[in-house]
Every structure is written in C-alpha cells, then in structure tokens.
Amino acid sequence: MRHLRNLMTVALLILFTFAPTIYADAKKLIPMGESIGIQLQLPFVYVAHDVLLPNGEWLKKGDVITELNGRKIISVSALKDELSDTNITFSVEKNKEKREVSLTNEEANNVLPFLKDETDGIGTLTFIDPESNQYGALGHQIIDGVLKAPPKFTEGSIFLASIEQIKKSSPGHPGYKISVIEKNNIRLGDIKSNELYGIFGTWESDNKQSLRQPIEIMHEEDIKLGKAELYTAIEGSDVEKFTIDITKIEDSFLQFKVTDKALLEKTGGILQGMSGSPIIQDGKFVGAVTHMFVEQPEKGAAITVVEMLKKTPE
C-alpha cells in the first residue's frame, strides 16, 4: 500500500464499454510510441472553472448545465444558440443535486468561456494491430480532471501531436510534455472505448510506410528482469528508443527504472503524457507504461501487453 500511495497516473490532463477481445489472437503488433492528442466529445455541458456570478452565487467546477429556460442542452454550441432570451435560467446538476441559477443575457455570455463539452489531452500510442487495423493507447483509463470520472462520450478522435517543450520531473514534482496537435490536423483514428487498460479504436491513417515493423508479443512467463527498451517521443513527433531495467515482475504488471542517461538528462525520468509508451525486450513486445513513482520519477510501472489486450475485468 505504501508503494501504491506513491504511484501517480502518467496520463493526460492531465482525459465506453467496448471490450477489445478482437486483439486476443493477435500474434504480432506494431509498437508505436508517438504522442497523440485525444479528444472526446461529451453529450453534456459542464463548468470547467469556478465562476462567481454578480448576484454572489457560484457556478462550481464540475457543475453540469442540463437545461436553459427549460430546454435541454447537450453542447456549448447549442447553448449559444439559446442565449437570445433576455433572462436566462440554467438548470444545474452535480452529484445528483439540482438547482437553478438565474442570469441576464450578458452574464450568461460572460460565462461561456468557462464551459466545456469535451475532454482532451495528450498521451502515447501503444500499438497497432496490422491485421485488424485496431490500435491501443495509454494503458489506463481516461479520467476527466474536472469531472473526476471516466466521461461518457458520443465520439472520439486521436491526432498526431508534436512535443514542443518538456517540464522535467524531479522527486515529488512530476514533469510533463507540452504538446500541440500537428498542423495538418489529420485524424489518425476514432475512439471506440475508454477501458480500464486504455483507449481503443480503429486506425484510419493511410501513412503506413512510416510505421515500424510488427513484432511478436512476449508471453508473460518469458519476461525477464533486466534490460529492455522504452519507445516514446520527447521532441517533436519523432519516436526514440531509451534503455530501462525491468526490476520487478508481478502477475501482469511490471516495475522498471530508467537507465538511459539521455532520457534522464532531458526528462528526469517518466513524465505525464508518457502513459502508453511501449516496452520492448529481446525484440518482442512486453507492455506499456502506466504509472510513475512521484518521489522517484526515474522509476515507473507498466502493464503487460497480454493483459492490455484482454477484456476489461468485471
């Protein structure tokens, strides 16, 4: 339990019940490591930051606006279209408690910049199955930082992201990647599910020439303590290989330590946004980064790719 308290999710913002059983028989996967922008369109509008209204009331972070003057609201654009009335009443819900907030038209317009209807963030693409054309990423579930829960969503997309800057990790202070979606803004794939073991969907990009060659999956009983490689992007959109040591193997989960001097110098170890980075040993696909140790950022945890491919546990 002591170690668990020191683990911090290496995730997006930090971000579905499709079980990826289609991967269970995959013999070879393409290891990736590219940084991706992730966007989930939600079927509701929520407040992203606390807002003090002129009448002294608050719209609190995480409040969901369900109705405007009695009309159901499912998106920010729909809310904007309804702001023609002089007096506005928001129906607001949080933790199953409902209340009404009255505003003038001007006050409602001033609130708009604090409203969202999507979850977005940065993570790392783990693999592509060349036979089914399905992908997996992150190695853990997306939890919206404001809603504090895995969000329901109507559709989702992944895009290639470019690393513009690194905030280096230090003991007690997790670092992170500062990334932007590439200028061409081409969707790489959809998001069908947000599972306990990552996000999964269909790969749509035609640019297969730039992909790495498929490699065999390493069975869990064959994983060894010692040297392995981590694939990830820390500058631009180029994926690099860095050395690590696997230090512990327990069931379907691993612990490792970054030994690559270049990576330690650049990042201090593991960063937020590296979740999903593939781990390779002896030329075979071992797993994906999922967590970091906050007080020892050179240390991380991972899930085996065999476990990642399984149906979400009940």
Description:
This protein is mainly beta and 314 residues long. It folds into 2 domains: 2-41 and 117-308, Beta Barrel (Thrombin, subunit H), CATH 2.40.10.120; 43-116, PDZ domain (Pdz3 Domain, Roll). 9% of the residues lie in helices and 49% in strands. It contains 5 helices and 24 strands. It has helices spanning 2-5, 76-81, 105-111, 261-267, 305-308; strands at 7-9, 28-31, 35-47, 51-52, 58-59, 64-68, 71-72, 87-94, 97-104, 115-129, 134-137, 155-167, 175-181, 187-190, 193-195, 198-202, 215-216, 226-235, 238-250, 253-258, 271-272, 278-281, 284-293, 296-304. It has a 15-stranded mixed beta sheet that branches. It has a 6-stranded antiparallel β-barrel with strand order 18-19-20-24-23-22. A two-stranded antiparallel sheet has the order 4-5. It is elongated.
